[in-house]
Amino acid sequence: MAKLWGGRFRSEENRVMEDFNSSFPFDYRLYKQDITGSIAHALMLGHQGIIPETEAEAIAKTLREILADIESGALELSARAEDAEDIHTFVEVELTKRLGDAGKKLHTGRSRNDQVAVDMRMYARGCADELIALVDALEKALEKKGAEYPCLMPGYTHLQRAQVVTFPYYMGAYRSMLKRDKKRLENSRELLNESPLGCSALAGTTHKINRAETAEALGFSKPVDNFLDGVSDRDYLVELLSDMSLIMVHLSRLSEELILWSSAEFRFVEIDDAYATGSSIMPQKKNNDACELVRGKSGRVFGDLMGLLTAMKGLPLAYNKDMQEDKEGFFDAVDTVKACLSIMIGVISTLKVNEKVMAASVKRGFLNATEVADYLVAKGVPFRDAHGIVGRIVIACEDRGVAIEDLTLEELKAFDPVFDEGIYDYLDYHQILQKGIKKEMLE
N or C: which end of the chain has fewer CB within 10 A? Predict the structure, then answer.
């Protein structure tokens, strides 16, 4: 396939260099954005009188036909990796093949620098929309699952039972994380939604193009303010990769909890067969591989973020070929995060919760100890003294194999005479959740 830049060269490109330089094997997925951007550019050239309007319309019509052929499979992309340097070359050469010399006018007033920049912004914008929808769907799945099982459960610090909470409230913690994730994605989408088309290579063009027209046609809020920045900015990809990395942190934490909770030692939850696998040698095994894979893939997304940060950190303005390295990592991260979100929606939607086991774990954990200390404080005992008193009560209960609420009033008075019948409201787990700010856990 002829090189768009070949006129200046006396000899052919080395075949190894040609393969090394080619981005088609991965940037072919930008075909829709590239064609859409090219249609907007061609029509603008016609409206501005830079090329005849009849030719602009013919270019747009032929580009739409190329898009239809790609999406129907009549024009195959993946098999052309050896022939095309990139998706931009592929589309332009195919256009010229079908339309003749008129097709060669498409690139007037445009560089591949602003072309790839607008393609990637449109692609990233669409990815942000898809991720927002998936994050929202997972948040709703967590809310629905929490409502399905309004039971008590232990809350943990240091992976030790700490205080009583409810399962809906626990799910609410992850919902809060996802709500922040959604806001970050929405903010990133807003920031990236500026059109670099018209920046040309780095300093614009002498043609009287209309950047506002193409920006509006492509759904951007405005053209970028600075041409140099427009072709060399990859902040929006870094920001989205950062957003996706935080999503994976949250999914990984949720996965770890579900892995622990589904173990025989916890038995808090049961993962549906649809999201588990078995052992090739141990017939009894049911492995929580869905969550383990989500947990494992978090590192992959973090690596994609660090790869782009490292590629960008020392680049002078404006465009450098290093920036071609933005695509594979970003594509990989988007594919990975979308898959992980989809899997987690399924895991949560089909999850079974063992309410009796959770309740029994609450009973065994001395999870009302802090409330006993609060009771003593309300009776005028200094908190540090109250802390020590309750610690001694716990030791005594451990020695006898009983819970604090199993002690008689006389036994409690042996630790401090201020105890009276009111202590049992502080020992009942349902009553605990009715007091003060903890009412939020029941709402």
Answer: C
State pLDDT tens for residues 78-128. 645 456 789 999 999 999 999 999 999 999 999 999 999 999 999 999 999
Helix H, strand E, coil C: the string for 199-230 is CCCCCCCCCCCCHHHHHHHCCCCEECCCHHHH
In angstroms, rounded to a whole number, what is the distance separating the alpha carbons of residues 113 and 274? 46
pLDDT of residue 310: 97
Tokens (6 digits) for 195: 């059109």
Out of 279, 280, 342, 387, pick the active-site residue: 279
72 is catalytic: no
C-alpha distances in angstroms, 425 versus 165, 407, 416, 431, 435?
16, 14, 17, 6, 10
Half-sphere exposure of 161 (CA within 13 A, CB side): 18
* CA within 13 Å, CB half, 46: 17
Q: pLDDT band at 19, cuts 50/70/90? A: confident
> Could you confirm whether 221 is annotated as catalytic?
no
Given 11, 78, 158, 430, which residue is catalytic? Answer: 158
The per-residue pLDDT for range 370-427, each reduced to its tens digit, is 999 999 999 999 999 999 999 999 999 999 999 999 999 999 999 999 999 999 999 9
Q: How far apart are CA 267 and CA 425, in angstroms?
A: 29
Residue 180 burial by CB count (10 A; 0-12/13-18/19+): exposed, middle or buried?
Answer: middle
The token pair at 35 is 């064609």
Contact status, residue 423 vs residue 375, Cβ threshold 8 Å: yes
